[in-house]
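Bench notes, afternoon.
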Amino acid sequence: MIVKVLDLEKDKVRLIIQGEGHTFMNALVEELLSDPDVDVAKYMIEFQFSDPELLVTTKGKKNPLPVIKKACKRISGHCNELIKDLKKQ
């Protein structure tokens, strides 16, 4: 996964996440919005085969990059739990 930072401020970031589609982006936005430090999390895919652009703003001038990393780790943890549960079946 290649990530390009388009705009970075103290409490706002715009990123291009190459090669991802609606599936990952919906999961990421949902996870980001569950964080009380996140004010806005949304993405846009301009054309059918273009890479998504993610916008995240945080409350209280919190750096959005670590918030995004933590959200990705939580998604990964959810997937690991599901795999472990499926192996039990």
